[in-house]
Amino acid sequence: MTLGKFIAFEGGEGAGKSTQARLLADALTARGIACVVTREPGGTPGAEAIRGLLLGTSGAGWHPRAEALLFAAARSDHVERLIMPALEAGQWVICDRFVDSSRAYQGGAGGLGDAEVIALHQVGSKGLLPDLTLLIEVSPETATARATARDGEAADRIGGRDAGYHARVAQVFGALAVAEAARFARIAGDGTAEMVHRQVLAALAPLLGPA
Fold this sequence. Notes:
By secondary structure, the chain is an alpha/beta fold. 56% of the residues lie in helices and 12% in strands. It has one domain: P-loop containing nucleotide triphosphate hydrolases (Rossmann fold), CATH 3.40.50.300.
């Protein structure tokens, strides 16, 4: 049986990942390609419960190691119970964030280190990586405007961190895209949703084949 394709959208807060994941799912469905749209942290009941622990704003929060462990645990359940079964059934999986977010947020901006995040991912999810990671990059001004429009004053624990933290996240994402260029496609995200979607489809052309 042919495995499906695993596509991840990455980027900082307000990049438009969720919108692009939905648009891609619609485009794949129109081509007759079965797909599943999911997110991290989340995607399964267990992982969604961990999402609440990670992103809720009550209490003191988590230190970087605990945060990374929780993300890895949520991802492990997600991979085991949703992502791999869908891929093995021949479906495409479109995921709003995956391990590269942990590498950028906890490993880079959080100071844990990339090797530590990769080690957790190897244990929890057998090192699974997407077939293609679409990194949507937007200016800080666009990111702020979109995140504010989406969340108002109710940003989650990680989204509400300071501008310096989010600038470090963007820098790490960019460095990952350079270091692992064969797996990444960099998408300019400041335009309209349709403009960005066209770039996404262009990046996926080698996997999609003829329309």
